Amino acid sequence: MRSFRELVEEAVAVDVSGWDFSWLDGRATEERPPWGYAGLLAAALADARSALDLQTGGVEVVDSAPTLPARMTVTEGWPPNAVEARKRLGPRGVQVVEIGVDDPLPFADGSFDLVTSRHPVRTPWPEIARVLSPGGHYLAQHVGPESAFELIEWLTGPLPAHVRDGRHPRHDRDGAASAGLVVDDLRTARCRMEFRDVGAVVYILRKCVWWVPDFTAPRYAERLLDLDARIRESGPFVAHSTRLLVRASQPG
């Protein structure tokens, strides 16, 4: 394995824009939830007449669907991802709307019979309910509670109870119900993650900036050095992501 300095310098220099994680091939792995969200999304989009994907990210999952509805719209708040969305989805007739995660959705009531989202930062339940047509559906994969906390807390120390509870599935159940939606399915999966060198850790923390918001390699150099030593001595650092499958519907 290369030196600590070489691994960190490489990970600091690499481009982390977009939502492609192929740089981690051979250096980190993450188990996938058993339900296969990409397949569920593709099937739902093929059956929809109009669909809205919220906080679409790098659009890899939406773009992987063979068939898109006649009216397909995505929203994205981070400019580099919005550029990527227009490049990849524009030729497929998809409208890309650049708005922040807390902005009201600029669509009329009942505009879509399907709303989807993969790993939204926040879930705007009242707005989702508003833009769904009667009988419409919400299909999403959310990040669950304490996701990757083994790694996050390695750097930050123990997080407070309210942060650990922040993405508990009951919040989605309560949020959907309070917006007038019926929760049809809510499942949880805990998925193993392995980081095989400290460069992979630096890369993921630069890309997923909300994990450790003040992260820089120099700021956390001491903890990264300790982590590097642990990986060299004991093998890959193991953490666990948690994922929620959420299905809800608008009474029709």
From TrEMBL:
A single Gene Ontology biological process assigned to it is: methylation
GO MF annotation terms: S-adenosylmethionine-dependent methyltransferase activity
**Sequence ranges assigned to domain Methyltransferase type in this UniProt record:** 52-139
InterPro entries from the entry? Answer: 23S_rRNA_MeTrnsfrase_RlmA, Methyltransf_11, SAM-dependent_MTases_sf
Question: Which keywords has UniProt assigned to this entry?
Answer: Methyltransferase, Transferase
Q: What is the annotated signal peptide range for this record?
A: none
The record, for Gene3D superfamilies, names: Vaccinia Virus protein VP39 (3.40.50.150)
The record's listing under Pfam families reads: Methyltransf_11
Q: Which PANTHER family match?
A: METHYLTRANSFERASE, METHYLTRANSFERASE TYPE 11 DOMAIN-CONTAINING PROTEIN
Protein name (Swiss-Prot/TrEMBL): Methyltransferase domain-containing protein
